[in-house]
Amino acid sequence: MKLKTKQAWTGIMFALPALIGIFVFYLIPYCISLYYAFTLQNRFVGFSNFVTLMKSETFWLSMKNTTIFALTAIPLAMIIPFLIALFLSTFDKHTGFFRSLFLSPLIIPIASVIYVWQIFFTDYGVVNNLLQKLGLEPVSFFKGPWSMVLVVIIFVWKNCAYNIILFSAGLRKIPKDVREYARLEGASDFTVITRIVIPILRPTTFFVFLLTVISSFKIFREVYLLYGMYPDENIYMIQHYMNNNFNNLNYPRLSAASVILSVFIIIIMLVFFLIERRNDQ
After folding, report:
1. Within-domain flag for 253
2. Domain count for the chain
3. Domain span holding position 103
4. CA-based nearest residue to 62, from 214, 216, 252, 257
């Protein structure tokens, strides 16, 4: 018992800095947001701030764009890395070089990345100059539907590397003998992937999904650097709405929006946790 107690206290001491950080930088600010969400000028107003928020067309525009982005970017940021990791798993050598190559988006500073993207995709950028030389109409990547496409591409490119590493680690745990035996029994590559690889990779896929969902709500930094504080309405997301209310010192509306967003994320996580637990049973 003494040994177990000592090990328990050792674990607590190692985890204590992280727990303090979570408490100070996450739990306390969230409690303050809850306070502001239900008050107005230091008076308790119940759900009045939420009712006002629901009547805001700008809020619903930001929610619509955020939902469109999440439904588009999250599947692509999972499927593409899975296919690349599956392709790399067919090689016995030189896979380390390709993995290092795919890690480059994580190493390059985001400000430098955005500057390069601006050079390529502005109205007078490299891509539009090339289109004009080919006799094609230039594309406005900073306005209209193409602005969302560009944001999705940036997100997938930025998050592809880490997901490739996670899927590659999961694929290495699958014995090659299992796949080779299935092929000898007449199973096609598609059958091997859908009936063997994907079911075994379910825990890895679930973890990748959680990380990708969390990353999708951090796209504000890239969008802000690329398009500014007030971007095209096609990419005006919930993070822009909260940031603008913060600049306008409208803390009740900002807090109400942040509470709704956090509840939305929690619901998504709980649903997938329940699905994963049911599949494990």
Report:
1. yes
2. 1
3. 32-280
4. 257
